[in-house]
Structure formats: structure tokens, C-alpha cells
Amino acid sequence: MKSKTNGDTKSLLILGTASHVGKSAIVTALCNVFSRNYRVAPFKAQNMSLNSWITKDGKEIGIAQAIQAKAAGVEPTADMNPILLKPKGDRQSQVIILGEPYADKTAGEYYDSIEDTHEILKGSLDRLSDEYEIIVMEGAGGAAEINLYERDVVNIGTARATNAPIILVGDIERGGVFASLYGTIELLPEDVRKRVSGFIINKFRGDPEILNPGLEELEKRTGIPVLGVLPFSSINIPSEDSVSINDKSNNNDSSNDVEIAIIRLPRISNFTDFEPLEKLAKVNYVDLEDNLGNPDAVIIPGTKNTISDFVDLRESGMYDQIKKLHGKIPIIGICGGYQMLGTKIHDSGVEGEQKAEYEGLGLLDIETIFDAYKKTTVQTTKTITCGGPLLEPIKGEKISGYEIHMGDTTSQNFVFDDDGCMDDTGLVFGTYLHGLFENENIRNSFVRYLCEKKGLEFKPQKIISQQEAYNMLGDMVSDGLDMEKLYDILGIGSGKV
């Protein structure tokens, strides 16, 4: 695979020493900074994540590339993440190619056909090159996975396909950042190693001056400049994947005493749905084996496999804990969680390994059928058509979101036009809409109700817009890096030519 991105279009590849070192956030920031003078697109050849996004034309991509595109002020497209792997358990993943579900494959089956992906990736890069002046590309995991070099399309493969200059990112908060940067360089194939043009040290807490001896020794040993040391940041942008859930334990910004419990399903997806609530309430992710306690509301989130997660929920005892709260507090289901709230789930073998019928939680009068390997993927705007204690104050108002689901659900008491269902108490409802709490009206109405039930004053918090967050992140990264040197590495000027 060879791409023409090394012609008029400039490209930059951000690799990391490991997963969760901040590659996605740095690509987001650079997309924002470069877009102030150039037309910029993000690119990640292959993403493994259960947090995904739906483009305007109904294609499914990793949420990180959607965020990066928005930071660059452009519309996300499937070419920005041509291959998305969504783990389903049992060593299988759903393979999404150019935004469309292709097949469920084991790792072995997928990698046996890895050569088939090269033309797909080349086509995406070529189309992006026709439209954009800079492509900021992201690797995955650690760049020096020596057991994967022959089939690594996202790190080594992208480097070889584009001949792009490489920036290597290390996370100092993990410890051993100098060893991880130096070790990665030493393990990279020679043709890729010579493309590494700079280091970034990320997530530093303290005085950068104390790092100077180490920075100088690293540059001396490798001949590669350190472009900057970036501080640990609390700027909120949506999380890329489930690794980030571990950061959320008891890590809420809110001083509010209202507690919202999110059921941490084993195959939880799109948990970014609930990040907008973190400024307004204590949002806790509760494992299936844990005691649910006495939350003020429960949310059952989306899942990559409704059947498997529902079986786990039922067998864990969480099933009974949720049912005991029925009628006492709000219980909300999103996507797969919505399906679980119903009376029955019928599977023709699409979700599970064989045909089966399952008794749901029985909190909503709905039934869901999985009878075809097809997925609904759409952005949508709907009207709030149900009232009840949670939504009556905003009934008739508009909300927006996106759907990513398999299965069809029959419902009568719709919540949002033709979507969702609400019970007779108005305290239980479900919906297929992801991004629900991005809507300020829904978010405030929901938390206001929870506050009033506890005799607390609801204090709406100003939540900065996504664009403000992207600009802040871009400013922080550009202030922390030697941008003149970075522009030289790219082979362009710092301003529009």
C-alpha cells in the first residue's frame, strides 16, 4: 500500500509508547491548531473501540476521529477511520469497513485477511489528500509491538504507506517515560525509526525544569528533539474508549449530592453519553457484582452485545437490585439498556450463538427482535412527546442524537416522536438515542427533578461547548510545544502561504 499523501498534502503521524498516553487528545489539539491556517483532516487506519459516532451519511466511525474532525472544523467522514473493530467478547469483534458492518471475526480470522485492508486504507488516504492540506494521523496502542509488525496496519503500516514524519508520545504519569521512549525507538524497524522526528512527553504534573537533564540525555542518545512537555489536563473532551472508565472512579467534578449510577456492563459502549452529567451530579459506574446502594437514578447504558450483557446482568444479581428500585427512582435505558428494560428479547441467533427468547426486566411494555445482521445508524432530531415527572417541563421541545443499534423494538408509549417508551409512572423510560444528555433541556430537566426530590436547589452549571474545549486544548498544546520546529518537520510555514 502506497498513498499519494507525500505529494502536495502534508501528513504527520502521532505514535505512542503505549495505550492511553494521550495520542487522541494530541491529535485533536493539533487538528485544531493547524486548522487555523490550513484545511485539516484526522486519520486512523484502524480503531478498536466501543465508543463510536455516526456521520451525517449514516456511517459508523470511532468517536475519537469524529472529535478530531470537529476540532478541525470539518465534517467527520468514514475515510477518517476506514476500519473500526468493536469487540463483542469471546475473542470476536464486529468489523466495520468504511462505516458499514462487514462481519464478525476472531482476531485470527481478521489478521489472516489483513492484506485485503491495504487498498481500503490507501483509497481513504487518497480521497482525504484530494480535499485537505494536512492529515494528522494517529497510531494505536504502543508503536513497538514487535510481535505484530507484519500485520500492524495502524502504526507500522501507516508509517510505511505515507512516509510521514512521526512524533512519538510518552506518558510521564505512568513512570519510566525516558525508558519507554528510548526503548520504543530501539525496537522500531529501521525504516520507520528514521521517520521519528520528535518526542512529546505528556501528562506532567510539576516543574518541567527538573526534567531538563533527562531531556538532554534522551536527545543526545537518540538524536531526536523533544518538542515539549505537556501538562496534565482536565479539559473535558469525550473519552475515546472504555480504558477511560477506570479514570472516572470517584473522579467527578460536581459538588452536588445527587448520585446517578451507571451500570457498568461488561461490553459497555458509548459511555460518553453520560459525561455531560458529570458537572451536575456524582456519576458512578457500578460493576455487576457490586452493591448498587441508594442512588437517586439508575441508567443502563448501551452495549455491543445486548444478549450477552443481559445474561450477565441477570446472573449477577444486579437484575434484582434494579427491579427493587422500580417506582422509587428514575430508571433509564439507552440503546441496549432500553432493550433490556422490556418484557421480552427475541434472538434468531444474530446476537447470541443460537435462537433463544429472554424475559427482560419487564419495566417497559416493549419487545425487541434480533432477526437480521443489520444495523440502524443515523443522526436524528426529534420532539419530546411524553411528559411525566422527568420530561413534562420540556414536552414539545426538540432534541438531537444518533442511533447505532441492531434489533427492532415494538413500542406504544413513545418518548421522542417514534422512538423509545415510557412507563405509566413516567419514572422509567428508554430510547435508542445516543448523545441524549448533550441536550441541555434533557440534562437540566432530569437533574432538576433529582435535586428537588432530595430537597436540594438545582444549580445549572455552565458547560463549555465542545468547540471551546477544542480551542482550549489546542491553545494548551501549542503553548507547550515548539510549534516552529513542528511546522518545520511538516515542511510548511506556521501561517497560511
UniProtKB/TrEMBL annotation:
Residue positions of the active site: 335, 434
Domain (CobB/CobQ-like glutamine amidotransferase): residue spans on this chain: 259-441
GO biological process: cobalamin biosynthetic process
InterPro entries: Class_I_gatase-like, CobQ/CobB/MinD/ParA_Nub-bd_dom, CobQ_GATase1, CobQ_N, CobQ_synth, GATase_3, P-loop_NTPase
Pathway stated in the Swiss-Prot or TrEMBL entry: Cofactor biosynthesis; adenosylcobalamin biosynthesis
Domain CobQ/CobB/MinD/ParA nucleotide binding residue range list: 13-234
GO-annotated molecular function: ABC-type vitamin B12 transporter activity; catalytic activity
Keywords: Cobalamin biosynthesis, Glutamine amidotransferase
A Pfam family annotated for this UniProt entry: GATase_3
Keyword Cell membrane applies: no
Family: Belongs to the CobB/CobQ family. CobQ subfamily.
Entry protein name: Probable cobyric acid synthase
Species this protein is from: Methanohalobium evestigatum (strain ATCC BAA-1072 / DSM 3721 / NBRC 107634 / OCM 161 / Z-7303)
